[in-house]
Design brief:
- The chain is of the alpha+beta class and about 350 residues long.
- It has 2 domains: about 10-260, Aminopeptidase, CATH 3.40.630; about 265-330, RNA polymerase II/Efflux pump adaptor protein, barrel-sandwich hybrid domain (OB fold (Dihydrolipoamide Acetyltransferase, E2P), Beta Barrel), CATH 2.40.50.
- Helix content is about 20%, strand content about 30%.
- The protein contains 6 helices and 19 strands.
- It has helices spanning about 70-80, 95-100, 125-140, 170-180, 200-205, 220-240; strands at about 10-15, 20-30, 40-50, 55-60, 85-90, 145-150, 155, 160-165, 185-190, 210-215, 255-260, 265, 270-275, 285, 290-295, 305, 310-320, 320-325, 330-335.
- The strands form 2 sheets. The chain has a 15-stranded mixed beta sheet that branches. Strands 16-15-13-18 form a 4-stranded antiparallel beta sheet, with no helix packed on it.
- Strand 8 (about 160-165), helix 4 and strand 9 (about 185-190) form a beta-alpha-beta unit.
- Helix 1 crosses helix 6 (about 220-240) and helix 4 (about 170-180) crosses helix 6 (about 220-240).
- The structure holds calcium ion (CA).
Length: about 350
C-alpha cells in the first residue's frame, strides 16, 4: 500500500479548516506557465465547522466529465449553514479542477486521471499534486469520505453506491449502513484491489467511505441528481455531521449486489459499431447475447456476437456506438448471496 510522501504540499489553502463557521476559498495549485509566470489554478473548496463532531469530506469532479456530484455539492454549499453542522464538513466539488473545467475525464494539463494517481506526489504533475493534497491535508481531518462519481462521457450507470470490499467485517458493516442511508437503487461491493484509487487510501487510514456512480453520458440527469441530493443528506445525518433534526425523507431500499471478478465486465472483442441487445437494468442469463459488432468498412462481413459470460444485472452500459478492442460495453453485478 503506497502512502503519501511525507513532504509538505505545495498547494496553499485560502481557508482555515480549524476555524468555526462557513468559509469558501480556493486551493492554490502552483502553475507557472507562459501566460502567467507566477500563477496558480484555483480549486474551489468549502469548510463548514461548528463545534465538536465528526469530520466528513464530500467530493466530486474526481473525473472532470462527471457532473451530477458537482451539482449536488454546489447545492449543499448554498443550503447548509453552520448551525446545521456538528463537527467539520469539507465540500470539494471539482477535485481535479482542470479536468472539471474542461469537461474531460482526465486533466488537459498532464493527462492525469486523479483516481489512478493516489497517493500522489507534492512535486509531481498538477494532478499528482492534487492527489497528494487530498491524502496529506484532507483525509487526516475526516472520518468519512463520499466521492461522488458517475459514468462520465463513455458510460451510463444505474444510480449506485460503490463500496470497496474489505476483509474487516466491522468496516463493511459500517459502510453498508451508510450505503443503505444513501438509498440508491443499487449498491455494489467491488472486489478490486487497485492501490491508486482514493478508496485504497481511505481503507488504509480507517476512514469509512464509498463512491457513487450517478448516471453519466456526460450529462446531468435530474432524476439521478434527486436521488443523490436526498441520499447525501441522509448519509451526512447518519454520520452525525448534519444535525439530528435536519429534515430528510426516509431512505428507499437499496439492492445489495457485488462484482466478483473480470467476468462481470464485458469488452468489445473487435473494432466496429456496437449494436446493443439489452437495456440498463436487464437481468441477463449466462450466454445471452449482449449485442453485436458490425463492420461497415467490410459490409459483407457477418457481425460478431458478444455474449454475457455469466448471469447478472446490467448496471452499466457503454455510450458511443463505435468501439475498439478492449472497450467496456456492459458491466454486471449479482445479488449478494448472504444478505
Ligand atoms: Ca468516475
Amino acid at each position: 500500500m503506497a502512502q503519501a510522501k511525507s513532504e509538505k504540499t505545495r498547494i496553499a489553502c485560502e481557508i482555515d479548516f480549524d476555524k468555526g463557521g462557513k468559509q469558501q476559498g480556493y486551493l492554490r495549485l502552483p502553475h507557472s506557465v507562459h501566460r502567467s509566470a507566477y500563477g496558480w489554478i484555483g480549486i474551489p473548496i468549502v469548510c463548514i465547522k461548528n463545534g465538536d463532531g465528526p469530520g466528513v469530506l464530500v467530493q466530486a469532479g474526481n473525473h472532470g466529465d462527471e457532473y451530477e456530484g458537482q451539482v449536488v455539492i454546489a447545492k449543499l454549499i448554498r443550503e447548509l449553514k453552520p448551525k446545521d453542522i456538528r463537527g467539520r464538513l469539507i465540500l470539494f466539488p471539482m477535485a481535479n479542477y482542470p479536468a472539471a473545467r474542461a469537461g474531460t475525464r482526465v486533466s488537459p494539463i498532464d493527462q492525469g486521471n486523479l483516481n489512478r494517481l493516489f497517493p500522489g506526489d507534492p512535486h509531481g504533475t498538477p494532478t499528482q499534486m492534487i492527489a497528494h493534497y487530498i491524502v496529506s491535508e484532507l483525509l487526516p481531518r475526516v472520518q468519512y469520505v463520499f466521492d461522488l462519481h458517475s459514468g462520465g462521457s463513455s458510460l451510463e450507470l444505474i444510480p449506485t453506491v460503490d463500496i470497496r470490499y474489505s476483509t474487516d467485517a466491522k468496516r463493511m458493516k459500517g459502510v453498508i449502513a451508510l450505503a443503505r442511508a444513501f438509498g440508491a437503487p443499487i449498491t455494489y461491493i467491488g472486489h478490486g484491489t487497485g492501490t491508486t484509487m482514493l478508496s485504497a487510501q481511505t481503507e488504509h487510514l480507517g476512514i469509512l467511505s464509498f463512491a457513487t456512480e450517478l448516471g453519466g453520458i456526460g450529462t446531468v440527469n435530474p432524476a439521478n441528481v434527486a436521488i443523490a441530493e436526498k441520499g447525501i443528506r441522509r448519509v451526512l445525518k447518519h454520520t452525525g455531521v448534519l444535525r439530528s433534526n435536519y429534515p430528510v425523507e426516509q431512505a428507499p431500499p437499496t439492492r445489495l449486489t457485488e462484482i466478483l471478478g473480470d467476468a462481470y465486465y464485458i469488452y468489445a472483442p473487435d473494432e466496429g459499431v456496437f449494436e446493443p441487445a439489452v437495456e440498463l437494468g436487464a437481468e441477463v442469463k449466462k450466454g445471452q447475447k449482449a449485442g453485436a459488432i458490425h463492420f461497415p468498412e467490410s459490409p459483407d462481413r457477418e457481425p460478431v456476437d458478444v455474449r454475457f459470460p455469466i448471469a447478472g444485472i446490467v448496471i452499466c452500459r457503454r455510450i458511443g456506438a463505435r468501439v475498439q478492442i478492449g472497450d467496456c460495453v456492459y458491466h454486471l453485478a449479482s445479488d449478494v448471496k448472504s444478505a
